[in-house]
Amino acid sequence: MTSKIDEALDKLKHSGIRMTPQRHAILSYLMNERSHPSADEIYKALEHNFPSMSVATVYNNLKVFIDYGLVRELTYGDDASRYDADMSEHYHAICERCGEITDFDYPRLKAVEEAAFEQTGFQPDGHRLEIYGICKQCADITKH
To answer: Where do the TM regions start and end (predicted)?
Structure first.
């Protein structure tokens, strides 16, 4: 059975994208990390293994991954972009205190796209939903 990382690597390889050690490390990190890291966080996590790698290298590779549909960029307000390698349809709950982003699924919201089409004739190709509030850890701290 092939892993998601192997499938992503094959897609890049068949598209003529050369697989450098840094590119492989960035992609592997993203696919194994559930915290929706920023480019700076990715850089800091990998810099000890790749001392000559720059933050620009991380950004450039993230752009390649986005262009090939392997990663999505999450932008929320003025904060740094976050990156998510989970390309399944899912939504995000965002803590307004600590910034934690947590995935959740709610399949019935797909009906929103159908309603947009029925009511406006607009042909949606996706949607995005964020729920803002306070995560459990921050709420527990407040209670004490």
So the answer is: none
Q: Which residues of the chain have pLDDT under 50?
A: none
Number of domains making up the chain: 2
The residue from 36, 58, 84 where one domain ends is 84
Q: Is the torsion defined by CA of 132, 35, 7, 73 positive or negative? A: positive
pTM of the model: 0.82
